[in-house]
Amino acid sequence: MNKDIVDYFNFVGISGIAGAGKDLFFTLCKEYLRKHKIYSARVALGDEVKARSDKAIKDLYGFSAKTCDREQKNQIRSHLVFLGTLKRKETQGRYWIEQAEKTIEGLYKNCLPQNLTYEGGVQQKPFIFITDIRYNEYKKDEVYWVRNQLKGTLVHVEKFTPYADVNCDDVPTGEFTHDSPSAPNGSEEKNDPKVQKKADFLVKWQDHKNLELKEVKKLLAPTAKSIIDKILKTKA
Length: 236
Fold this sequence. Notes:
This protein has a single domain, classed as Rossmann fold, CATH 3.40.50. The chain contains eight helices and eight strands. It has helices spanning 3-8, 22-35, 45-61, 70-91, 95-110, 142-149, 186-197, 213-234; strands spanning 10-15, 40-43, 117-119, 122-124, 127-133, 153-162, 178-179, 201-206. A hairpin with a 2-residue loop joins strand 3 (117-119) and strand 4 (122-124). It is globular, with a radius of gyration of 18 Å.
């Protein structure tokens, strides 16, 4: 990746198993940054996997891999994992990274200097969030890419459900108070702990599936705000 591009953006990689809230975390960060007039964009390694698989998925299942809902995505997950893993093995984990870099280069060309804003007289870098960092298997895998090549920040997101008979406020450490969902496939079960170990920030938030999205955002937004504030302070 060109050094000018690396220096132009603040990069944040978001990791965690499927359904952990990676896209929600991005949305909360984006909304907070917008209030400060700081540009942000989403890039996903899996977008290209879906694009390459889309025709076959439509033929087999009758829906698009690009626009499917979570239930539909669970149906096709094994197909996506197979293609993704195949190209990863051929390139020591670099194939989908290189496709994502092309997307980032396009963003750089489209939002050159005019998108660097000034908040309180201080120049702020635009943010790019890579919302599906899943592997730390090869020497220069996705974790290495985010933390070393992009000079970015890695956030790991995990969702939990409290036990019904335990008041989490009485156990601040969270030990033995909750269940965390299991990984949806063997690949994530194997690789997620490796990625988590390298994370700069660990986000563990309660599953609020019974609440309206507006209420969920209100409860979880302070977590995203805190992390963004720390990044702005250390990587301005």
